[in-house]
Amino acid sequence: MLSKKQLLTRGMFDISPHMLSVIPFGIICGAIGVELGFNPYLVYAMSFIIFGGASQIVFLQLLSGGASSLVAVASVGIINSRHLLYGAVLSEYLEKLSFIKKLLISYIVVDQGFAESNKFFKKNRNEEYLHYHLIGTGCTLWVCWQIATLSGIILGSFVPEELGLKFAIPLTFIAIVVQDLKKLDHVIVMITCGLSSLLFFDAPFKSYIIISPLIALFVAALLMKLKK
Amino acid sequence: MTLTSIIFAGILTYLTRMTMIALISRHMLGDKIKAVLEYVPSAVFPAIIFPGIFINDFGTFIEINDPKIYGALVAIIVGYFSKNIIATILAGLISYWFLIFIVFS
After folding, report:
1. Is B105 helix (H, G, I), strand (E, B) or coil?
2. How far does A7 lie from chain B, in Å, by closest CA?
3. Would B34 be classed as within a structural domain?
4. CA-based nearest residue to A59, from A95, A81, A88, A32
5. Which chain A residues in 10-69 lie under 8 Å from chain B, judged by CB atoms?
6. Do B97 and B65 reside in the same domain of the chain?
7. Residues B18 and B47 in one domain
8. CB pairs under 8 A between A and B
9. Same domain membership, residue B61 and residue B98
10. Residue B103's pLDDT band (boundaries 50, 70, 90)?
11. Which of residues 102-131 of A touch B (CB under 8 A)?
């Protein structure tokens, strides 16, 4: 049995490699907001209140492009609706927590933290304080995201644009799923999702980000039926 | 952009995070759904990966010889064999930089 502290540190350790992409992305995100002419305090408020990388950039871009705030808010909601799927997966491991703790821990569930903690949970189902791993990944991401977006806001885009560091985002997610390429069913699900995301990329409100996972999960369900 | 719109976006985002964790209990989901949920990472992350590689900043498809495609392939190969996140990201970035700064410049 691992102690709370061990689990917390393990979570922080497991998430740390992803800072390679999260920090540059945060700086870019903060800098874009200021470059588009928004109030720096509001740009930072997004990192605290919304706390969701890609959705923050879309929010800024839509508003600066003249979209109504209703459209911008709806888009943020749709982009982030993928968290519903993360929550459904995590709920099994967080079941024993009190309602208040569930409410609090929900705030720090983000893509990479979900991915790394979920991998850890699957291998260590029987640990009593599993959620401390999620707190470790989530809080590390939170702190780094706040610092990174703040530095982008204050210092501007001091990361040279020619480096194309936005490319680190797909790379970080490749690192997350690459080991599942060993399993044919997962490969089929991934390709379904990827191709659907390109096909539906122009769907309104950036809804490709939830449409394609749903199509991929449908295919996953079909595959499971075939396997039986 | 107003603080109000940010707060609404924040509340919506929080609801997407909280609903399934705090309001739905696990036994409300059937066994079949639980089994399908095993595929969530594989079913969600490619929707971030593919557009990040194949679609450029202007929302159009990249050329077939775009350096990002090669960078991603290198990252997949290095990631598959090294099982190391830092190695995966760096391999992708460095091969991408090698192409844009040395080969294609």
Report:
1. coil
2. 20
3. no
4. A32
5. 17-18, 20-21, 38-39, 42, 45-46, 49-52, 54-55, 59-60, 63, 69
6. yes
7. no
8. 270
9. yes
10. confident
11. 102-103, 105-107, 109, 111, 115, 118
Residue A115 backbone zone (phi > 0: left; psi -120 to 50: alpha; other: beta)? alpha
Q: Which chain A residue has the Cα nearest residue B74? A: A171
Q: Each residue of A48-60: pLDDT tens digit?
A: 999 999 999 999 9
Subunit contact B50:A195, Cβ cutoff 8 A: yes
**Which residues does B88 contact at the CB level (< 8 Å), separation at least 6?**
A171, A174, A175, A178, B75, B78, B79, B82
Using CB atoms, pick whichever of A73, A103, A111 lies closest to residue B5: A73
In angstroms, the separation between the Cα of residue B27 and the nearest Cα of chain A is 9
The pTM assigned to this predicted structure is 0.95
B19 and B65 share a domain?
no
pLDDT digits (tens, 9 = 90+) for A118-139: 999 999 999 999 999 999 999 9
Q: Which two tokens stand for residue A207?
A: 């809804």
Query: Does one domain contain both B89 and B61?
Result: yes
B46 shares a domain with B21: no
